[in-house]
């Protein structure tokens, strides 16, 4: 072994960090080990129990195939293992580490509770065979737990969190890490190995996994999105040109004014540092001030950070519990027929239906509309927000537990720093304000295409479009009364 390296052979365990560029675990492994291999472990049973959906899994598999090629160019083999559940990972990993004869494991930390437990079990298992494990901070800019109030507590409110977060970043520009070096060719990595109690460890990425339906690929795109690191980098370059207009235009769903980077951030095809570095470098290193568009976008990225930090500080969020425990007393409705109409975009409220159809057809929904449909489900229909949270997890390409839970608890007024319970979005005024000419509605609700601008937000009775599922005014009053009763 060359004395330049701490380890002879290292293994990088890839998860939601499917890229070569600026991947901390990969970079650390390439720096510290003479030879490096990578592994991805699919656990379809656990993924299903976490409500991972067909789109997100299909996207991940395509990202993995692209990544396998990029890694191969650097003589880093990418292995694939299919298990059922997270609980099987420690035993399987021990066998793999032994059979591949590696002496260190590197991975980027993941923060939902089950993922944290899995990772700590793997660390314990490998400790028994004297193999060190390094979990790196990569999904967030600062490690959860690092931003604390003066009394050492986690922040529960966004604005002071943001202030402390920026201060703690201390002027760093989050420059992406250098590319991992290429390895010398090494024939000693086996093509496959047998793993007891599991499928073989192979170098083939499957097209599909048990329990998940394939999502049709058209011209290399899934639901209109091109997976992978190259497409992510292209999207970031495009958004760089438009970022100054972000604050003014981001609320209008008919305009393509937001970055649409969320599926890439979620799968890790792009890093949070690449995004922040781009924005800071255009704004003279400033998080606030300078370009309104840039500082507003950076603020959204800090929301992402905030929700991830919250998850670690308050593990009950990972157990289907509301942040505000008293809101568990809300007499939530479990009306399946109404819920189905909401899912299918058949509520008779055009902006809600257009938004839900956008989600079903493209695997993504505009942020303004996520707030509108979440408020509509949890307030106007008073349906348990966890049903909506679950549906989003199953259908969004950017389904991220922390951001999704945070967004739902915000809209349902059950979360910390959430919308106050008496502020219920009126879907008709939201529609008139943010889709004034009904362009977005017309795109996704073709039944309403011929209606004038003044009728499209709240259509008259029609043969081919349902009447509204509820009286928006009355249901709003009812929801406010229910929440007020909790006091
Ligand atoms: C009910 C609800 C559910 C949501 N579920 C998710 C989810 O599962 N995954 C997800 O990534 N975002 C979620 N969001 C946040 C937000 O809607 C999306 O991040 C955003 O619409 C993605 O589009 P974009 O990449 O163009 O965002 P941009 O506006 O360009 O923002 C850039 C990035 O900042 C982050 N971001 C922006 N807004 C938020 C926010 N409010 N909370 C946390 N991060 C944010 C995302 O990573 C996003 O890609 C949810 C919001 C709500 C109200």
From TrEMBL:
The record marks 332, 385, 408 as: Electron transfer via tryptophanyl radical. This is Deoxyribodipyrimidine photo-lyase. It catalyses: cyclobutadipyrimidine (in DNA) = 2 pyrimidine residues (in DNA). Involved in repair of UV radiation-induced DNA damage. Catalyzes the light-dependent monomerization (300-600 nm) of cyclobutyl pyrimidine dimers (in cis-syn configuration), which are formed between adjacent bases on the same DNA strand upon exposure to ultraviolet radiation. It comes from the Bacteria. Residues 8-141 form the Photolyase/cryptochrome alpha/beta domain. Its EC number is 4.1.99.3. Transmembrane segments: none annotated. It comes from Microbulbifer marinus.
């Amino acid at each position: 072994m060359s004395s330049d390296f701490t380890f002879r052979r290292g293994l990088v365990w890839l998860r939601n960090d499917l890229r070569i560029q600026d991947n901390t675990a990969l970079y650390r492994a390439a720096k510290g080990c003479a030879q490096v291999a990578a592994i991805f472990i699919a656990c379809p049973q656990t993924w299903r129990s976490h409500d991972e959906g067909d789109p997100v899994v299909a996207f991940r598999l395509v990202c993995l195939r692209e990544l396998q090629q990029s890694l191969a160019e650097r003589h880093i083999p990418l292995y694939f293992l299919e298990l059922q559940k997270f609980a099987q990972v420690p035993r399987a990993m021990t066998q793999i580490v032994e059979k591949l004869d590696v002496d260190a494991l590197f991975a980027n930390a993941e923060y939902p509770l089950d993922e944290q437990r899995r990772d700590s079990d793997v660390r314990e298992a490998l400790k028994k065979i004297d193999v060190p494990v390094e979990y790196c901070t990569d999904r967030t800019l600062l490690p959860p737990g690092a931003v604390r109030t003066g009394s050492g507590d986690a922040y529960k409110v966004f604005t002071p969190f943001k202030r402390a977060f920026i201060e703690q970043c201390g002027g760093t520009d989050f420059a992406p890490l250098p590319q991992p070096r290429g390895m010398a060719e090494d024939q000693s990595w086996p093509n496959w190995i047998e793993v007891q109690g599991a499928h073989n460890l192979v170098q083939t990425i499957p097209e599909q996994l048990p329990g998940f339906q394939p999502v049709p690929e058209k011209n290399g795109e899934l639901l209109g999105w091109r997976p992978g690191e190259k497409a992510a980098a292209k999207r970031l370059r495009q958004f760089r040109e438009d970022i100054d207009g972000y604050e003014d235009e981001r609320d209008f769903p008919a305009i393509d004014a937001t970055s649409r980077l969320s599926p890439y951030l979620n799968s890790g095809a792009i890093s949070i540092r690449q995004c922040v570095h781009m924005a800071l470098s255009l704004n003279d290193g400033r998080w606030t001030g300078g370009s309104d568009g840039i500082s507003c976008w950076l603020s959204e990225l800090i929301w992402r950070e905030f929700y991830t930090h919250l998850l670690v500080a308050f593990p009950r969020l990972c157990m289907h519990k509301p942040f505000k425990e008293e809101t568990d007393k809300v007499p939530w409705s479990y009306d399946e027929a109404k819920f189905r109409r909401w899912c299918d975009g058949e509520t008779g409220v055009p902006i809600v239906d257009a938004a839900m159809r956008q989600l079903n057809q493209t695997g993504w929904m505009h942020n303004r509309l996520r707030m509108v449909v979440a408020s509509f489900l949890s307030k106007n229909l008073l349906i348990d927000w966890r049903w909506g949270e679950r549906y989003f997890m199953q259908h969004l390409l950017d389904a991220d537990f922390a951001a999704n839970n945070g967004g739902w608890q915000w809209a349902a007024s059950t979360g910390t720093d959430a919308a106050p319970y008496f502020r219920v979005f009126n879907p008709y005024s939201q529609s008139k304000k943010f889709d004034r000419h009904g362009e977005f509605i017309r795109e996704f609700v073709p039944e309403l295409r011929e209606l004038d601008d003044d009728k499209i937000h709240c259509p008259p009775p029609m043969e081919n479009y349902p009447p509204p599922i509820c009286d928006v005014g009355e249901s709003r009053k009812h929801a406010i009364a229910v929440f007020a009763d909790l006091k």
